[in-house]
Amino acid sequence: MRNVMPANPLRDRPRRAVKAHAMRERRTAQVLMLFGVILACVELYVIVSWI
Known about the structure:
The protein has one helix and no strands. It is mainly α.
């Protein structure tokens, strides 16, 4: 008799294909957010050290 139910139904689903430009845009957004956080930390350091 065949196994009708898959062992892990979540893993056996076909994955959505992510387009290359979508991944590039996401990576760019992450880099820009990281740059913003670093810039904010540097600005706080300059302001605090100046007082």
